[in-house]
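This part of the workshop introduces the protein records we will be handling. A record pairs a protein's sequence with a compact description of its fold. Backbone structure tokens are a discrete shorthand for how the chain folds in space. The question running through the whole workshop is how a given chain folds. The record below serves as our worked example for the rest of this section.
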Amino acid sequence: MVGASPVIGGGGKGEAMGKEMENLINEFEAADMLGLKVATLRRWRWAATGVPWVKVGGTTVRYSPEAVRAFIRAGTVDPEDVRQCPSK
């Protein structure tokens, strides 16, 4: 999934937005969840690929834990799918 980066902040801050912001994690936490280096996430953002991210206030980057989990699920390979070979 290409990293969409909506910008949050600047306008009026509603209670729902505040709760949503509380659930976001920073790039170090996201990298830890994925077992990657922060530099990898930064490179992915530069290339507009990888885990979707959120820009807060125009410069701060955060990730939704659910987006990280969805990215992991999307990359999960089922061995049964791999073993399916055309029979000769």
